[in-house]
Amino acid sequence: MGVPPTSSLLGLDRGEITALVSEAGEPSYRAKQIMDAVYRQRAETLAEISTLPQEFRERLAQSGVTTGAARIEKKFVSVDGTVRYLIAFADGQSVETVWMPEGDGGEAGDGSEAGAEAESSGPGTSGAKVPSAENEPIAALKRCATQNRAPQDERRQAHGRSTICISSQVGCAVDCQFCLTALLGVKRNLTAGEIVGQVCAVLKDQKVSPPDDRINLVFMGMGEPLLNYENFVKAARLLVEAVGIAERRMTVSTAGIVPRIRDFGGEAIRPKLAISLNASNDALRTRLMPVNKKWTLEMLMAAAREFPLRTREWITFEYVLLGGVNDTPENAREAAELLRGMRCKVNLIALNPGPGIDFTTPDAERVAVFQKILREAGIPAFVRRPRGRDIYAACGQLKRTVEVSTSPELQIQSISLSPTPEV
Ligand code: SAH
């Protein structure tokens, strides 16, 4: 019956679903029913799509069509509320997806308080100007009053600061020396359906739904999104158009795949851009991120400077601080020089440690000095609070740790290794 290359509904856009419906000889409104069921109700099986006639559902099933819904295989909950999901796909491969709940003060993935930034006018050199969590109940009550909604509805809606961190590949090929995911190598790209499927699975599990609940999305999990470009871009489009997540609440982070950064700037629908800088000169960056051999700092900075920013948009640069390696005052001054005059901000991330990672985490004072130098050079710089380190959910720690969670070398300082599987 003319089923498109994939047999999963998830990952198909409106045009593809329309084609499927028309080839099946069904009326065109069925396309909307399927879109709604898959992306809004997040049906896991065809049987759940009760808007379709039983006979049509059977025909779909017989021709090998499934919803393609992702399956949550394991779930680890951190003391700070962060949840790390292990999400499995049909071929048995799995990735990690992280849920960072509201009110955490700084996990939008780009240093702003999640969700706050879209309403503010952008980063200022005076520091992060974000509404405090304490103001939220008052604001919520005001919204209730104007919208005539019950406070408990509003409480539900106050999931306003939650962020989902999604993966784009199984493993990663980029080989950054400080990142646990790199140790896996790259197994395969995720399809657009598998990328969107992570979001749908987490939204369903957390019982939240955009746009009522303000959801931020960061493509900062396992993998290099710009090395899985077509699927990543299609997924981003589906997340905006079909799932209903606001474009301005999405950020993609790249290790610096320069030609793809340029392509990405030309996309009609695209998340905001974050670039993992992580070093202040070529020698250091090449040592830490081998990708720098191919696309040097000069090439990367040129692409960043030419990136077509929208109104009130800026580029985020992430800088993972490694004790005694890239965190000296001289490094801060060099980094400031690289970024001078750009519409950007910097997120400083003190290394999240892990087994097999031979770097140390600088202390808070050293991080503060680095931040101060950037700020004094006129560059907004924010320090990211690590989330879910105790369950291996923080930046650079996504390695499907369940595989190794019993191994003794994981018992390293500052990591408590007692993940609590819930599922
Ligand atoms: N491949 C993409 C997205 C995934 S990494 C990229 O490189 O940007 C998301 C962020 O986590 C990157 O900024 C990366 O530099 C940072 N990161 C990686 N390992 C880390 C670690 N061990 N501690 C802290 N941050 C880390």
Question: Characteristics of this structure?
Answer:
single chain, 423 residues, alpha/beta, TIM Barrel, 15% strand, elongated, binds S-adenosyl-L-homocysteine
Strand residues, percent:
5-15%
- Cofactors, ions and other ligands in the entry: S-adenosyl-L-homocysteine
How helix-rich are the residues, as a percent range? 25-40%
Per DSSP E runs of 2 or more residues, the count of β-strands stands at 12
What is the residue-averaged pLDDT?
Answer: 83
Overall shape: it is elongated
Cα separation of the termini: 37 Å
Q: Would you identify the CATH architecture of the largest domain?
A: Alpha-Beta Barrel
Strand arrangement within the widest β-sheet reads 1-2-3-4-7-8-9-10-11-12
What is the highest CATH level, the class of the largest domain? Alpha Beta
CATH superfamily of the largest domain: Aldolase class I
**H/I helix tally:** 13
Structure description:
Helices cover 31% and strands 15% of the residues. The relative contact order is 0.13. The C terminus is likely disordered. The longest helix is centred in the middle third of the chain and has 15 residues. The chain is built from 13 helices and 12 strands. Helix 1 packs across helix 2 and helix 6 packs across helix 7. The chain has 423 residues and is α/β, with parallel strands linked by helices. Bound molecules: S-adenosyl-L-homocysteine.
